[in-house]
Design goal:
Elements (H helix, E strand, L loop, with lengths): L7 E2 L6 H9 L1 H9 L8 E4 H7 L9 E5 L4 H9 L3 E3 L11 E6 L5 E6 L1 E5 L2 E5 L6 E4 L2 E4 L1 H10 L3 H13 L1
Parallel strand pairs: 1-9, 3-6
Antiparallel strand pairs: 2-3, 4-5, 5-6, 7-8, 9-10
Amino acid sequence: MSRTPDTATVQTDLVPATLQLLQQSAPFQLAQQLQPSLEGITFGIGGSLLLLELGLLNTARDLDLVCSLADFPRLKAALAASLTPVEVPPHPQYQSEAFARFVSTEGVEVDVMAGIRVQQAQQLRCWQFQPGRLEWRHQLPWMLADDWLVLYQLFQRPERVQLLQRFLAQC
């Protein structure tokens, strides 16, 4: 991850139980393993692993990485060097400009997306990754909860939207 002047390094005060859940999470362990090979590529971690890191979930089901369209080919190639690509059929609702899925030998799925686009009620809604909106915690680049609130609204995930709304109201 290239650090830009706008990229913040943030320390969070995780309660010990949350930190333990995070450290035991297979997606988190995979992210830590992959990080050295992704040096110089700007991306952020989001999805269920972000919610686990924020203390909002007890488990993470996969590793979601978001990047710019410019960085997508490099990120995809770097992941392909150590993970197995998984063929993903086109989806009628999720129509991101770039998407790839991988699986680790331990069975952890990694979704990589850029130029996020979602079809909603005959309208294509778009969201672009902003590298300056990352925070470094646990030596990893995390996306902002605000951004995933918007993404979960786009993805029509009301339970996750409510979790993040409550979290952000407390901040």
